[in-house]
Amino acid sequence: MSSPFPPDSVGLVVPQRMRFEEPLELASGACLPHYELVYETYGTLRPDRRNAILVCHALSGHHHAAGYHSDDDRRPGWWDNLIGPGRPLDTRRFFVVCPNNLGGCAGSTGPLSVDPASGQRYGPDFPIVTVGDWVLSQARLADRLGIERWAAVLGGSLGGMQALQWTVDFPERVRHALVIAAAPSLTTQNIAFNEVARHAIRSDPDFHGGRYYEHDAVPATGLRLARMLGHITYLSDDVLMARFGRELRDGKLNFGYDVEFEIESYLRHQGESFVKRFDANTYLLMTKSLDYFDPAAHAPEHSLSKALAQTSAEFLVVSFSSDWRFSPARSREIVRALLDADRDVSYVEVESEQGHDSFLLEVPLYHQVLRTYFANIPLAGSPQ
Amino acid sequence: MSSPFPPDSVGLVVPQRMRFEEPLELASGACLPHYELVYETYGTLRPDRRNAILVCHALSGHHHAAGYHSDDDRRPGWWDNLIGPGRPLDTRRFFVVCPNNLGGCAGSTGPLSVDPASGQRYGPDFPIVTVGDWVLSQARLADRLGIERWAAVLGGSLGGMQALQWTVDFPERVRHALVIAAAPSLTTQNIAFNEVARHAIRSDPDFHGGRYYEHDAVPATGLRLARMLGHITYLSDDVLMARFGRELRDGKLNFGYDVEFEIESYLRHQGESFVKRFDANTYLLMTKSLDYFDPAAHAPEHSLSKALAQTSAEFLVVSFSSDWRFSPARSREIVRALLDADRDVSYVEVESEQGHDSFLLEVPLYHQVLRTYFANIPLAGSPQ
């Protein structure tokens, strides 16, 4: 029987699971006695193990980056347009690994998991994890997979921040870092939006201090609001205008509070579907991880350039012109710090109307850049 | 006893109240059988009644634009830095009128008022009013005050939209229109933010379908969220960064959800104090009025220029460089439409880091421009 999937798709994939018995000391001082990471892989790890690439997911992402989970699955992984045989991240050459982050809600140990100390779900007791904690947990996954050094670590948004942190925390283990639609830290405005989202979730009466599982409840209102707000910041003003404009669903004003403008319908739908697939406690801690991200925190004079001076990766930094969540100016801060530290960096500012979401989309120049970049990562016989 | 107020303050003011017995037909088709407007005035109406200026308030504003309500009142009106003897809007020359809008919660007929049809508070049954409805109600106030033609109508944000609507609906009654930090209509993103705010209020369990008064409740959580979100859009990213940065209240991360960053503390405080002074039903209808604003709606080809062709006012349009709620580009749309319609318009784009809030602040160039503009409005003996 022929495959129901396109020939350049990775096709059917099955998530894998790795259990770690050694305790993980977190930046907060808390300790996870043991934990599991769920992850997917695409392509084949070569015997020399030099073709491995780590993909890090963003705020609401997960380990299912490419391919399909069943023959009738119509929705491929979130970065499927990038990853596959013949696609920019070509799985004929590379072995791609994508884990669900600790604290996530897609299978890795997180608030939904049972706390061995209490025998109950962690819920709000799951410790706040940092980007550095994720990198450490991913490094252990790499150890177990026998990957000493990644050919590349990449991600968009919060995923790009993980790629950057990798180069600081494990400079010898990253040959290339692709930092896409990211920032060296959140602005006050970024933190402010996160705080409103958290406030919405935590003030929902169904939140029950985070123990909503025990009440057979879900803080749906708060999580819906958080996602609606998020969506506004993921898209540019222009693309919202082009896509929804001021179109009225009934073609006229109704002088009431039901959906009138098409954008209202879109936001409510996005909020609603998010509630069905995402856990509120995970959303809370992921936004904290964003707020806390600061790879320069431990560098002399809080200098990003000094923090990056110890890195040895080659960098590709990509930003999108209409991204106002993590604007090109923020990417240029990373580039400037790398140049000041005399590191090897390429930078591309891609013209795109799609805002922050661009990193998920098949923007032609963007994909061409990544295709060329990956094609030029040497594998066989080349110096590491 | 000497006055406790600065010599260029209008000093003590007492709100006034006007009752209108004639029914007001609203754009929605609803009708207010009778209504009241509360308003303040500053300065003296000259016998020829040609020195009257109308100040229109914004989303969360009210009639108390200048001066103080008691000798120990430490908080003057919201536009006090602009209005007073010797201030840019000089009350030695001008008679300034500022009403609370219909649907408001500061004394004019609105959701808090008793519906004569039911004997209960209007609450959610108060009809959604439009900018055009406000202008009509203000025109009737002008009639009653014997003001045939305003020397100027002005306002910032939603107030500026009212000034613009005045010139379209009553072209002969406005000599000068000052449209400040406004837009010819909301963008999709503007509507989206309003929708999230409304959703927060309406999904608060204490909202009770808008009949929270009857339940002795207030949808505090929703209104707080709405205001927190609003505040982010009123301020520029830069001014937030300059004012709050990434400062931590305790000087270190606490790995918890209590206030950590100073910006979180600021937003929660702003939200909290707003809940104490503002009515949720009013907030809802004010945001709808913003969403609906479209002075070009009835013009041929929905053309703003054609809508403005019938106006006879002289215009001053002012925008602020860092305003991303109603950006300078939106003000330039108004200016371009006025130029296309061969109207008399001046435009100033003021450099300011304070974002949308700039229109309330004493930004030097801004105040100089207004001072000069008002000083050059002729009063005595000049042609109307």
Question: Could you describe the 3D structure shown?
Answer:
The structure is a homodimer of 384-residue chains. By secondary structure, chain A is of the alpha/beta class. Helices cover 32% and strands 14% of the residues of chain A. Chain A has ten helices and twelve strands. In chain A, the strands form three sheets. Chain A has an eight-stranded mixed β-sheet with strand order 1-4-8-5-9-10-11-12, with helices on both faces. Chain A has a two-stranded antiparallel ribbon with strand order 2-3. Chain A has a two-stranded parallel sheet with strand order 6-7. The longest helix of chain A is centred in the last third of the chain and has 16 residues, at 262-277. Chains A and B meet through helix 3, helix 4, helix 5, helix 6 and helix 7 of A and helix 3, helix 4, helix 5, helix 6 and helix 7 of B.
Shape of chain A: globular
Biggest interface, residues from each chain? A-B, 53 and 53 residues
Q: Percent helix among the residues of chain A?
A: 25-40%
H/E topology pattern of chain A: EEEEEEEEHEHEHHHHHHEHEH
The tally of strands of chain A reads: 12
